[in-house]
Design goal:
- It contains five helices and no strands.
- It is mostly helical.
- The protein has a domain of about 80 residues.
- The protein is elongated.
């Protein structure tokens, strides 16, 4: 029995060697690590290093949209709406009531396009004429729709 007691004693001493750190020791270790990290950050911020000033970075792909490109885009949009209206008028399955939102949008875009064309200069007279004709055509379609010319 003497041998058994010696085995138990040696097992107890081995288990006791692996002592877990207490909660207070873990907290202190964290505080120490945090303090060291903060000190390193502050030290690097305090250091004086000279660096060249940043200059403006220009982009090769940025293009500012001019008035003529705005008018061109709105004219294209208005022509697309006129095409949509023409397709709807040819389709007997579409009622006039369902066409009303397209016609209203057509009128609003035509008015906006006419306002935009006022700011075009003499050098863009061809674009101004095309945009104006497109807007007037759209407004005529609006008047015809409101007047009832498309009733069968």
């Amino acid at each position: 029995m003497v041998n058994i007691n010696q085995i138990n004693e040696s097992a107890q001493t081995l288990g006791g060697a692996e002592k877990k750190p207490s909660k207070d020791q873990n907290t202190d270790a964290f505080k120490d690590a945090l303090s060291k990290a903060i000190d390193k950050t502050e030290a690097s911020e305090m250091g004086t290093t000279s660096s060249p000033a940043l200059e403006e970075i220009e982009s090769a792909y940025v293009q500012i949209q001019g008035q003529s490109s705005i008018v061109t885009g709105e004219t294209d949009k208005l022509l697309g709406l006129l095409d949509t209206l023409a397709a709807q008028l040819e389709d007997p399955g579409i009622s006039l009531k369902s066409m009303a939102p397209v016609v209203e949008e057509l009128n609003e875009n035509a008015s906006a396009l006419l306002k935009e064309t006022e700011s075009l200069g003499q050098e863009e007279s061809d674009l101004k004429e095309i945009a104006t004709r497109t807007a007037v055509t759209a407004q005529n379609e609006y008047i015809k729709f409101q007047r009832g010319d498309y009733l069968s």
